[in-house]
Specification:
Helix content is 55%, strand content 0%. It is an all-alpha fold.
């Protein structure tokens, strides 16, 4: 899961131009001002394309996308449920 967390951090920093230095894996990205609703939509698009998974409406809950750890866990759980 560490690799997934690194990839999420890299995406936020390089593609969305968000400052993630100093933001802990379990810190709320929304409360830290790292992401907003538009950034979440861009993140979801990246996740769907990069990991070939579908993020459904039921998945669009803050607990899946509020922290780097939660995002990585979501991706990992979805990759594990394929096939």
């Amino acid at each position: 899961m560490e690799a997934l967390k690194r990839e999420v951090r890299q995406f936020l920093a390089t593609q969305l131009h968000r400052k993630v230095d100093g933001v802990g894996d379990t810190e709320s990205l929304l409360e830290a001002g790292v992401i907003d609703s538009m950034a979440v939509l861009e993140l979801v698009g990246y996740i769907e394309q990069r990991y070939s998974i579908t993020v459904g409406d039921d998945d669009m809950m803050p607990e899946n996308f509020d922290t780097i750890e939660a995002i990585a866990a979501f991706i990992e759980s979805r990759r594990g449920s394929r096939g």
